[in-house]
Specification:
The chain has helices at 4-11, 19-30, 78-91, 96-99, 104-108, 116-137, and strands at residues 43-49, 54-63, 66-75. Helix 2 (19-30) crosses helix 3 and helix 3 packs parallel to helix 6 (116-137). It is globular, with a radius of gyration of 15 Å. By secondary structure, the chain is α+β, with helices and mostly antiparallel strands. The structure holds zinc ion.
């Protein structure tokens, strides 16, 4: 069965109980928070999702172990951009150690029901953020 994201793209039909998720996601997609370049960043990381063509880079300034300022840049589908925007809101001011513990489920819960292909789109920004933090801290990056 197709997820409502695919239904929306192909038929413009969304079940009523999914409407709130879709509106929230589309709002983040159209007005992404924390998108742009960050000067004098302490770390930057980048990765892509070749399945969809999403490409995201994340740069951050670190102070006292916290992500004092954080921005993403790049391009991707609505889910990828919205997910990045939501992550910037969530992770700003967060301790790096805590940000490393953000779970896949925490991100995916913003989207309600989501198909496996779209899961990679939604999780790309979290992966990039963790890559950046790990390289900054000199840790081994998580595999996923
Ligand atoms: Zn995508």
């Amino acid at each position: 069965m197709q997820s409502y994201w695919e239904m929306q793209e192909h038929f413009d039909v969304i079940p009523m109980d999914r409407q709130a998720y879709v509106e929230e996601v589309m709002d983040h997609y159209k007005n992404p928070r924390g998108k742009g370049k960050l000067e004098h960043a302490d770390f930057c990381a980048k990765d892509e999702n070749p399945l969809c063509g999403d490409e995201i880079s994340i740069c951050a300034k670190v102070k006292a172990g916290k992500l004092q300022e954080i921005k993403f840049d790049g391009h991707g589908c609505a889910i990828c951009i919205a997910s990045s925007s939501m992550l910037m809101e969530k992770a700003t001011g967060m301790k790096m150690e805590k940000a490393l513990k953000i779970k896949r489920e925490d991100v995916l819960s913003n989207f309600g029901e989501i198909s496996p292909v779209r899961t990679k789109c939604a999780l790309l920004s979290l992966k990039v953020l963790k890559l950046g933090i790990c390289s900054f801290l000199g840790k081994k990056a998580p595999l996923e």
